[in-house]
Each structure stands twice: as C-alpha cells, then as structure tokens.
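Re: beginner question about structure tokens

> Can someone show what the tokenized structure looks like for a real chain? I only ever see the sequence side.

Sure, here's an example I had lying around. Input first:
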Amino acid sequence: MTDCFNVVPEKLDRFQTGPLGTHLPAYAGLVHRRGYTDETGWGKIRQLRKFSRWLERRKIRVEMLDE
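And the corresponding structure tokens:
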C-alpha cells in the first residue's frame, strides 16, 4: 500500500522560495486532501518550487499571472 502525502512543515521550509513560496503550505494541504501518494505529492511540491524560481528570475509577480 502506498503512503498518502504527508505535510511536514519542517520539510516544506526549504521549498518556500520565490513569489509562490508563501502559497506553498496551502498548496501542500490541497495535495494532501486530494489523496496523492507521498512520491507524487513531493513531486508536485518540487515542480511548484521550480516554477516559483522561474518567476523570480524573470521578475514576474504573482499578480501578473492568469490562466
């Protein structure tokens, strides 16, 4: 049986970078509630961090994002 994604605040700290960093805990909670596996959940967290860093390098603010 696979483990459900478990939100560990201490582990999340190092992923909170860039303009989306402050939104990460809420996103991690959503991933947990949706029942993703631990491996997939952390993959989604890593992908969000990459996107946040990309935004930061290009000086794109969260308010500038849309669909």
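Each token stands for a local structural state, so reading them left to right follows the chain. The mean pLDDT is 91.
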